[in-house]
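Protein in question kept in full:
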Amino acid sequence: MNELELKYGCNPNQKPSRIYMEDGSELPVKVLRGKPGYINFLDALNGWQLVKDLKAACGLPAAASFKHVSPAGAAIGLPLTDTLARIYWVDDLDWKSFSPLACAYARARGADRMSSFGDFISLSDICDKDTASLIRREVSDGVIAPGYTEEALELLAQKKNGNYNVIQIDPDYVPSKVESKQVYGVTFEQGRQELRIDDALLENIVTKNKELPPEAKRDLKAALIILKYTQSNSVCYVKDGQAIGVGAGQQSRIHCTRLAGQKADNWWLRQCPKVMELPFLPDLARAERDNVIDVYIGEEYMDVLEDGRWEQYFTVRPEVFTREEKKEWLSRLGDVSLGSDAFFPFGDNIERAKKSGVKYVAEPGGSVRDDVVIEACDRYGMVMAFTGIRLFHH
């Protein structure tokens, strides 16, 4: 089959809609369940490339949670900690026995659960029972993987009355080296972005501190791979093999850094005991808890703490999470890696990154103010590598 009809295009009024192989060859994908739409396939195919690259670079199964053609989260399959299991709402499961792929998806979905709500999932490996069990309980549009176990397919068949989108991709498929698309009837053509992200990209360390441990190299490579498939401008914060903050599609580099930094801060604030011990009503759904936590740790906290409102979420009214308490807790976040898809034009990006515990930075370099950016890194003892490559994606 070299053509597949879709529900509709980006919006329901955009019909007809299809994907097809222009050269008449077979599509590299099969729809096992559901009827994916145009955006579903954009997310699926971008996400598949990301997790394939991430596994190749880091040697572990990888997962990505995509929303609107950018990753809300991505991770490799490192074991979960007790704290992560709790804030990712999987502590009621046998999480210590999760497969590496299930750990990867728990991390990818959990880092920014607000953005991942209704995601499209990409998996580097055959979807197993553990991973399918996680997917089954989350609000999601679909999943793409190179295969599925029988147990996994049975679990996924229980979602959306059997209409959950399940896509299988040929892991050996190799696309053409030239890609094209149309905008307003005009055809654009370019060579595919096939740049390999490896240790060699991190060899040009331009700061005084040149100590780049293996874990930091891994995390910087992960950040760069994630950026490779994130709508530009983009910045990505990574810690322990998972994205903890992605800033996508911003016109200003500093706004990317702030947006991703705020998400990284939120990820860390959720791990504060004061937040983890919030007295939620026992029947409050996980998605609702995510929404409440997001408000509670922000500046609009009274929206969930004022009289007549807190009773909808909590058994007792929690104390305010003060600015001083948040600042003190955020000061404990460290050893974060930061990647940027293009050069930092000003030192303000480094100043903002420092507030979110960044110690390691990878960016292309090439700005007329590189010296100012390097000086800012040196001031905080950061390690920065100039990759010499740009990773714009549109």
Observations:
- The chain has 14 helices and 15 strands.
- The mean pLDDT is 96.
- Residues 38-58 form the longest helix (21 residues).
